[in-house]
Write a structure and sequence with these properties.
The complex is a heterodimer of chains A (754) and B (344). Chain A folds into six domains: 72 residues, 2-Layer Sandwich (Phenylalanyl-tRNA Synthetase, Chain B, domain 1), CATH 3.30.56.10; 111 residues, Beta Barrel (OB fold (Dihydrolipoamide Acetyltransferase, E2P)); 190 residues, Phenylalanyl-trna Synthetase, Chain B, domain 3 (Phenylalanyl-tRNA Synthetase, Chain B, domain 3, 3-Layer(bba) Sandwich); 65 residues, 2-Layer Sandwich (Phenylalanyl-tRNA Synthetase, Chain B, domain 1), CATH 3.30.56.10; 165 residues, BirA Bifunctional Protein, domain 2 (2-Layer Sandwich), CATH 3.30.930; 88 residues, 2-Layer Sandwich (Alpha-Beta Plaits), CATH 3.30.70.380. In chain A, 26% of the residues lie in helices and 29% in strands. Chain A is built from 17 helices and 40 strands. In chain A, the strands form eleven sheets. A seven-stranded mixed β-sheet of chain A has the order 28-31-32-36-35-34-33. In chain A, strands 4, 5, 6, 7, 10 and 11 form a six-stranded antiparallel β-sheet that branches. A five-stranded mixed β-sheet of chain A has the order 14-17-20-21-22. The longest helix of chain A has 19 residues. The termini of chain A are far apart. Chain B is an alpha+beta fold and 344 residues long. In chain B, 43% of the residues lie in helices and 20% in strands. Chain B contains 14 helices and eleven strands. In chain B, a hairpin with a 2-residue loop joins strand 7 and strand 8. The chains are: A alpha+beta (754), B alpha+beta (344). At the A-B interface, helix 2, helix 6, helix 9, helix 11 and helix 12 of A face helix 5, helix 6, helix 7, strand 2 and strand 3 of B. The structure holds zinc ion. Zinc ion binds next to loops of chain B.
Chain lengths: 754, 344
């Protein structure tokens, strides 16, 4: 919402500077995006009223005039001008050399076709006051030459760019903002603008409301003998500064009153209407060509304004093209209404049509302000178009009664954490329009949607006291504050991967396909929620490798989503990684994670289409393997583990036993076995055969060679034996060793190497 | 010549297709190709002697069909040969990594800047005695909107703003649904921060991505005040941005707080004098905050005045941007190692 300051100050008399107004509004009312200057930039004193002393044809150019203009200096200025709609004696708007026009052009003293020109006689478009370039602006004859032009024309204004929140429709109006400024800075608020002129007749209008849910109020007013034309410069200037294009006097009035009071209006060409106007639901399939030229197919969801024959406007959003006012309009029907917000929002979304009007209606406009809007527009239409006002109707559905809400001042102070005296609270509320009654505060109609409870009144008080509220901490009676076990383990797993050289990445939750599809996908690649993480890592891995990275190892911790059959999907935390290099890379990373979490994993051979058939394993919580060469160019390995499952598998408390004072006996054993026998099977068998005395066991070497034979390999194990009862001797260990050798020979045909 | 000219195209095609299907190796397939499509194949000879357009078209169609069949079979065989080779590369997956590779020695990895911020935020709130809650990402509209007092007209309820799975299910648009779940789970005191991914239907550009991360706090207890919100956030902001930071609060509107405020922190870059980081205002916008709307208490079945509380929400990426001076949102999702490795 752009608020020209000159307009604002018309409604509120206050000493504060623009900066102070902006500050106060931004803290207590709505965000201020900035204050900018609209219109003429640079030195204003170079824009003057000029008196044309002489005007003759340029000797060398038929289309140019040579003028001599009194601009209040001790000598007249020579100015070459291309317009002919004035002559000697006219009072005109002059910009002197050095002046900067709104379009950025800086005027210079220069020769035009051989004749000196010291400045410019201005047309509307050069001051950004309109698009008219056909003639220069002719001013009131009574003006003194040299008078600053800014005193006569809206040359410049400061504009406040306010961004009100959706709960404050009253702030989408200059008057509403003025009301806030008056309350915040102790200014004096003028009464709402607009006074009904004399009505010259009492012709019927024929207004009706068929849908009282959608249309709460419908005012229609008839104007006869309208002279369509351009708006005066003051009006054009205001609209320009508020960011609205000037169209014609009648249309400009509807826009101006909307900006002033916040209630949108619409003007119809009365002679193009067939009978009176009603607010009703559209018929299914009904057609309407709106002002933007688009033909729209309506449904019963849409509220329309219709005459006796057809829809003539999409209510509150946009009027129809067939009945719009134009240069040839003679008689006008003005609509000032009130529409229910949600319906307007739905319609405007459905037709992808947002307008200044719909933007206000969808937030909920005060139905009581429609009357004043009609009045102000009537006054301006009569003033600016010379029309006669000849008919008026005001149809109301059930207008909401203003609520009266009780406020306990001590409750307000308790919630805010600042003692605000009851008297002060009442004063604050009074300043923003809450009337104090015996039973509480009556909510002003323009705040009725937002303020419905005591806590809403407390907010009103609080927003005026924000800077004074102290900084305190809660006085706690109970303390807690610790990561949950899964959260602690997640950090441990992440840190383990850092140690293994992996960099953490964040990839989107979306993929092309999955259990849970988005009915309206973001894109073909983002159409469903992912069920696995590793696939999202392929692209960043490839991209980093393509960029010449020689050490690409990435991991991600994030959710995956699977349909559960119930209302909501199952979400689980997963941990996935990818690294350049073979199977050992993934194996190393997974070993680090398991070791960090204190879990002893079991690896089993597995097969997945995306994994190398000979280099893929699974654990109870996930998988790891070398990627199949068709998945990604080069040799890559990857893994994915279910972190929630890992958290369940991780031991709650470390299993401790006292350290034995007796030294251990260490032995290395190497066995030759068939290739198919895995190290894990041998380790399990050794553990089983060794019994209680075995303290440690690991495989430390793998060997293949001619002595061992085709299809066979040797695996070497390191064993440590010990007992809490005493020092073991080789003799104590010999039978254990024998039973190991025996067990492996029996079960796997393993042969002990000498 | 006669024999060639009278070759039956249908028979020839049939014969070639069976031969391709029967080839068991790439080498055998190559023989088939030479026999049926080679320089001196019957088909090539016939094509060379074509007199009329119709015969030419028929023979060319045969050639194309056979060509396609050969290519398809070639891929099949290549894939099979690759599989065969891969099986022979088999390793004992149960061996320790050190015996399998050994794995590369890599320099220490790095956490994503968002995780660094996340951990800091978690630690700051743990220090204040808060729980950290992850919460679920797919939510019912009841928890994501209704429970949080989103009015019907609120734009977030539109599929243009939010990502719906169906009419009742939506990817959470903020992490606050987790707070309602906690409130349903137990009575106050509740001091919690929910952190994680949230989703909006945003078009990807320099500053927007449909996913980002939030941290949202909730404190509900007896006697909590708006002043406590100010004090708590001042502490947190000073922990994150330095001990000299000041704060101001501006009134705002959020569905589930009343009063609602936007907290600003004095610019750590210019100290308030004005610079591009604070858009020359001296203040940096941090997110949203406010006093918990009693509507929430009623939603979970508590009395409207048994407790009071405050809530606030801020962005993880935004915090990281401010902290590290990262411009825009793209670097957070590009996963460029040259970027990531700097966060040691
Ligand atoms: Zn700054």
């Amino acid at each position: 919402m752009r608020i020209p300051l000159s307009w604002l100050r018309e409604y509120v008399r206050v000493d504060a500077t623009t900066q102070e107004i902006a500050e106060a509004l931004s803290v207590s009312t709505a965000e201020v995006n900035g204050v900018h200057r609209a219109g003429v930039t640079g030195e204003l004193g170079l824009f003057r009223v000029g008196h044309v002393l002489e005007a003759t044809k340029h000797p060398d150019a038929d289309r140019l005039q040579l003028t001599s203009v009194d601009v209040g200096e001790d000598r007249p200025y020579s100015i070459v001008c291309g317009a002919w709609n004035f002559g000697a004696g006219a009072k005109v708007a002059v910009a002197l050399p050095g002046a900067t026009l709104p379009n950025g052009l800086v005027l210079e003293r220069r020769k035009l076709r051989g004749e000196l020109s010291e400045g410019m006689i201005l047309a509307e478009d050069e001051l950004d006051l309109g698009t008219d370039h056909t003639g220069i602006i002719v001013l009131d004859d009574a003006l003194e030459p040299g008078t600053p032009l800014a005193e006569v024309l809206p040359l410049v204004d400061e504009v406040l760019d306010l961004d009100p929140t959706g709960n404050r429709p009253d702030l989408f109006a200059v008057y509403g903002v003025a009301r806030e400024v008056a309350a915040l800075l102790g200014g004096e608020l003028a009464p709402m603008p607009g006074e009904d002129p004399e009505r010259e007749g009492d012709e019927p209008v024929g207004i009706g409301i068929e849908d009282p849910e959608g249309c709460l109020r419908f005012i229609g007013r008839v104007f006869r003998d309208v002279t369509m034309g351009e708006s005066p410069l003051w009006l054009k200037g205001r609209l320009r500064n508020a960011g609205v294009r000037s169209i014609s006097n009648v249309v400009d009035v509807t826009n101006y009153v909307m900006l002033a009071l916040g209630s949108p209006l619409h003007a119809y060409d009365l002679d193009l209407l067939r009978g009176g106007l009603v607010a009703r639901r559209a018929n299914e399939g009904e057609k309407l060509r709106t002002l933007d030229g688009a033909e729209r197919t309506l449904s019963v969801e849409d509220l329309v304004i219709a005459d006796g024959k057809r829809a003539v406007g999409l209510a509150g959003i946009m009027g129809g093209e067939e009945t719009e006012v134009s240069a040839s309009t003679k008689n006008v029907l003005l609509e000032a209404a009130n529409f229910e917000p949600v319906g307007i929002l739905r319609s405007s979304e459905h037709h992808a049509l947002r307008t200044e009007g719909s933007n206000r209606w969808e937030k909920g406009v005060d139905p009581y302000v429609a009357g004043q809007a009609a009045t102000y527009a009537t006054q301006l239409i009569v003033e600016l178009s010379g029309a006669r006002w000849t008919g008026a109707e005001d149809v109301r559905a059930n207008l909401p009664k203003p609520a009266v809400i009780r406020l306990r001042p001590e409750r307000a102070s308790a919630v805010i954490g600042l003692e605000v005296p009851a008297q002060e609270q009442a004063e604050i509320l009074g300043r923003v329009g809450f009337e104090r009654l015996q039973s509480g505060f009556r909510v002003p109609t323009w705040r009725a949607r937002d303020v419905t409870r005591e806590v809403d009144l407390i907010e009103e008080v609080a927003r005026f006291k924000l800077p004074e509220v102290p900084f305190t901490l809660p006085r706690r009676q109970a303390m807690f504050g610790r990561l949950t076990r899964p959260q602690r383990l997640r950090r441990l797993a992440e840190d383990a991967l850092l140690g293994a050289g992996y960099a953490e990445v964040y990839t989107p939750s979306f993929v092309a396909d999955g259990d849970l599809r988005l009915p309206e996908p973001l894109s073909a690649e983002a159409a469903a929620l992912r069920t696995v993480l590793y696939a999202s890592l392929l692209e960043p891995a490839r991209r980093n490798a393509d960029a010449g990275e020689e050490n690409v190892a990435l991991f991600e911790v994030a959710r995956v989503y699977r349909a559960s059959g119930g209302d909501l999907p199952v979400e689980r935390w997963h941990l996935a990684g990818i690294a350049d290099g073979g199977f050992a890379e993934a194996k190393w990373a997974v070993e680090q994670v398991y070791s960090a979490l204190g879990i002893e994993p079991t690896y089993e051979r597995t097969s997945e289409a995306f994994l190398h058939p000979g280099k893929a394993a699974r654990t109870a919580e996930g998988w790891l393997g070398e990627l199949h060469p068709t998945v990604l160019d080069g040799t890559w390995s990857a893994f994915e583990l279910d972190l929630d499952a890992l958290a369940e598998a991780a031991p709650q408390v470390a299993a401790f036993e006292p350290v034995s004072p007796y030294p251990e006996v260490r032995q290395d054993l190497a066995f030759v076995v068939d290739e198919e026998v895995s190290a894990a099977e041998l380790l399990a068998a050794i553990r089983e055969a060794a019994g209680e005395l075995l303290r440690e066991l690991e495989v430390f070497d793998e060997y293949r060679g001619e002595q061992i034979g085709e299809g066979k390999r040797s695996l070497a194990f390191r064993l440590a034996f010990g007992s809490p009862e005493g020092t073991l001797t080789d003799e104590d260990v010999a039978p254990v060793r024998a039973s190991i050798v025996d067990a492996l020979a029996t079960r796997f045909g393993a042969v002990l190497r000498a | 010549m006669d024999k060639v000219a009278t070759v039956d195209p249908t028979d020839l095609q049939q014969e070639a297709l069976s031969a391709a299907a029967e080839a068991r190796t790439l080498a055998a397939l190559n023989e088939v190709r030479i026999h049926y499509l080679g320089r001196s194949s019957a088909l090539k000879l016939a094509l060379r002697n074509v007199r009329d357009r119709e015969t030419g078209m028929t023979l060319n169609a045969v050639r194309e069909t056979v060509e396609a069949a050969l290519t398809a079979r070639e891929e099949e065989l290549a894939r099979a040969e690759l599989e065969e080779r891969l099986v022979t590369e088999r390793v004992d997956v149960t061996l320790p990594a050190q015996l399998l590779g050994p794995p590369k020695l890599r320099p220490r990895g790095t956490l994503h800047p968002s995780t660094l911020v996340r951990r800091d935020v978690e630690d700051i709130f743990l220090g204040l005695g808060y729980e950290i809650v992850d919460g679920r990402e797919v939510e019912t509209t009841r928890y994501n909107f209704d429970a949080l007092g989103f009015p019907d007209w609120h734009p977030a309820r539109s599929p243009r703003a939010s990502l719906f799975l169906d009419d009742h299910t939506v990817l959470r648009t903020e992490t606050s649904p987790a707070q309602i779940h906690k409130m349903e789970e137990r009575r106050p005191p509740i001091y919690m921060v929910s952190i994680g991914r949230v989703y909006r239907r945003d078009t990807i550009d320099a500053t927007h991505f449909p996913i980002f991360h939030q941290f949202e706090g909730l404190a509900i207890d007896e006697g909590i005040t708006l002043a406590d919100l100010k004090g708590t956030l001042l502490h947190v902001m000073r922990e994150l941005y330095g001990p000299d930071r000041e704060m101001r609060f501006r009134t705002h509107y959020f569905p589930f707080t009343e009063p609602s405020m936007e907290p600003d922190v004095s610019c750590f870059n210019c100290g308030g004098a004005g610079c591009p980081i604070c858009k020359h205002s001296g203040w940096i916008e941090m997110g949203g905050s406010g006093v918990v709307d009693p509507y929430l208490y009623e939603f979970v079945g508590w009395g409207p005045e048994e407790y009071t509380g405050f809530a606030f929400g801020m962005g993880i990426e935004r915090t990281a941007q401010l902290r590290y001076g990262i411009a825009g949102i793209r670097p957070f999702w590009e996963n460029d190692l040259r970027f990531l490795r700097q966060f040691r």
